[in-house]
Amino acid sequence: MKKLRVFSVILLLISTGAFVAFRTYSKHIQDNTPPVVTCDSEELRVSVTAAKEDLLTGVTANDSRSGDVTDSVVVESMSAFTEEGTRIITYAAVDDSMNVGRCERTLVYEDYAPPVFHMSEPLCYTVGQNIDILSCISAQSVLDGDLTSNIKYSLEKTINTMTAGEYPIEFRVMDSGGNTVYLKTQISISDKNYAGIEVKLKDYLIYLSVGEAFDPALYYQEADREGELSIESNVNTSQAGTYYVDYVVEGTMSSGKSRLVVVVR
């Protein structure tokens, strides 16, 4: 029994020594230290069309064991905009032991602009006509290109296609930076007597700067039948907002209507 106890103590001492030796070995041999990633500036200013390689400008990575690992640096993530056109970019680099190091800096797009909407047709219909709300509106972004598939809308009230009137609608779209833009406008439903003449415009949605000159007559293109043209506008370019210009062509037997949406910003 005494020999068994002595053997157990010896075995315990050997196990403890082996464990301590292993931990010491692991501490000195294993590499758990990530590389150090640094940027030569706190802020990077680029165009929205900058390539991924441009975003890596001035970023280096060094590791105490693997040495220079700059070739492993990648853009790990980009935050939503902290303010318009500005976001935080996170870089990551990996060493030979697969330890990952990171750093951040501010990314500023020098030529960023919010997304804009376009209309290929007016939101003008006549009583009884089918309405496909999204068929005539699209959206473009300098950052992402075509955003049409991301367009959403909401209505203040259900559209009754059998009742003439104005139905408020709000379109919205968000770019990859998290910037959401809105277009508040109206769907116009007119009496059937406005279905006889097709009135075409050169544009159906335009953006103007506050104070910019505006002549509604310049946007009229043609009507498919003869008639007298009248233009009704509530555009006030001295104040930001969404405005309308209605173009009505009155013929001897029928009429037609189209609308230009004007966004002053």
Description:
- By secondary structure, the protein is mostly beta strands.
- It folds into 2 domains: 36-109, Immunoglobulin-like, CATH 2.60.40; 116-264, Immunoglobulins (Immunoglobulin-like, Sandwich), CATH 2.60.40.
- The chain contains 2 helices and 20 strands.
- It has helices at 2-29, 52-55, and strands at residues 36-39, 43-46, 59-63, 67-68, 74-78, 86-94, 100-109, 116-119, 124-126, 137-141, 145-146, 152-155, 165-174, 180-190, 199-201, 205-208, 220-223, 228-233, 241-250, 255-264.
- The protein has a 4-stranded mixed sheet with strand order 2-7-6-5. A 4-stranded mixed sheet has the order 9-14-13-12, with no helix packed on it.
- The longest helix is centred in the first third of the chain and has 28 residues, at 2-29.
- The mean pLDDT is 91.
Features:
265 residues, mainly beta, Immunoglobulin-like, four-stranded mixed β-sheet, elongated
